[in-house]
Design a protein that fits this description.
One of its GO terms (molecular function) is diguanylate cyclase activity. α7 links the parallel β4 and β5. With 234 residues, the chain is of the alpha+beta class. The chain has 7 helices and 5 strands. The relative contact order is 0.12.
């Protein structure tokens, strides 16, 4: 059979044109393979269309899978009630900030908050109002903190805040502002007053995650012992 070699890697129109030229060439009129070529060309085009469709489906599925993975990454690090980071998400951010501290001379403010008498709130007013208190405090923190600060629900009624590039006096100032703003919150149960106790510490380049958390927890314990509704500095 005569004619130029058929390039099957081109687009459909180019391929169809080459097949038409091959089949209409008078020199190939008596070739017994013409029907086979016609059948193979048709089968090839059907297969190519099928592969293209599969490729489009695969691309769409890969995009959906990437979006799902991103969603799961966020969900796995977010507290579903408050929308803050959960313990896992906060630990990752904490370790990142500590790693950054080891390469710089800056400091990291750490606040550990606990809602005072939270069990009494749940027992007296119900768990729904207890949840509303947690959500309101989370919203207050999100509005107060800078875009590069981190807030998390550490567990139960405990919240944890990280304040990058913040010295001790700045960390204490934030703690006092949070105390004042929490006291000013108003609730549907008009006789309810909510306060928090805060443990304050500052992390430096040589600190570890465990040492920071231990100091913050000890400071929180001191704030509780001193009467609650206050902060204590480690």
């Amino acid at each position: 059979m005569t004619g130029e070699d058929t390039d099957l890697s081109g687009n459909d129109e180019e391929f169809d044109q080459r097949v038409d030229d091959l089949l209409s060439n008078p020199a190939n009129a008596d070739n017994s393979l013409l029907e086979d070529v016609r059948w193979l060309a048709s089968a090839y085009c059907k297969l190519r269309r099928r592969v293209r469709k599969i490729s489009l489906i695969s691309d769409r599925q890969q995009t959906e899978l990437m979006e799902l993975n991103r969603y799961l990454q966020v969900v796995s690090r977010t507290d579903p009630l408050t929308g803050l980071l959960n313990r896992r998400g906060l630990i990752e951010r904490f370790e990142t900030e500590l790693s950054r501290l080891s390469r710089s001379s800056t400091t990291l403010g750490v606040l550990m908050l606990d809602i005072d008498h939270f069990k009494r709130i749940n027992d007296h007013y119900g768990h729904q109002l207890g949840d509303e208190v947690l959500v309101a405090l989370a919203k207050l923190l999100q509005q107060r903190l800078r875009t590069y600060d981190h807030a998390a629900r550490w567990g139960g009624e405990e919240l944890l805040l990280l304040l990058p590039d913040t010295p001790r006096d700045g960390t204490e100032a934030v703690a006092q502002q949070i105390l004042d703003e929490v006291r000013a919150l108003r609730w549907n149960a008009r006789d309810l007053t909510v306060t928090v106790s805060i443990g304050v510490t500052v992390a430096y380049g040589a600190d570890s995650l465990d040492s920071c958390l231990k100091r913050a927890d000890e400071a929180l314990y001191h704030a509780k012992r001193q009467g609650r509704d206050r902060y204590a500095l480690a």
